[in-house]
Amino acid sequence: MPKMLPTIVRNLFGGPATRLYPVEVRKPFERTRGHIVFDDEKCTLCGGCARRCPAAAIEIDKEKKELIFYPGRCIICEVCAENCPRGAITVKEEWRKPFYEVPVEVHHPKGKKEKAS
Ligand code: SF4
Ligand code: SF4
Hints:
By secondary structure, the chain is α+β, with helices and mostly antiparallel strands. Helix content is 16%, strand content 16%.
């Protein structure tokens, strides 16, 4: 008992060891790879991100002019963001909320290709 006493006192008067998630959300660490977002105004549907993605999380439908993103496959490796020639992909620090159904994002990019001079 004497050995346990300090622990008991510490637990009685100390604060909680955990947060009341989701009411209290921890601020993400700097450079946390939380999730990626696409900027449809910048994207030109070049397909570079889809070709490089190791998780096949991005598909390009040239006919429909769509970029399809599967967040559930994404491992947030950042390869797409580092290689996008238009800077159309950004890595956000906040974690994506858990999902109950397989999410699919369909984007309709509007970025214009620069004309070769
Ligand atoms: S997000 Fe970037 S790399 Fe991917 S298709 Fe659009 S412009 Fe190309
Ligand atoms: S962060 Fe990595 S896994 Fe996710 S879409 Fe980009 S390249 Fe694919």
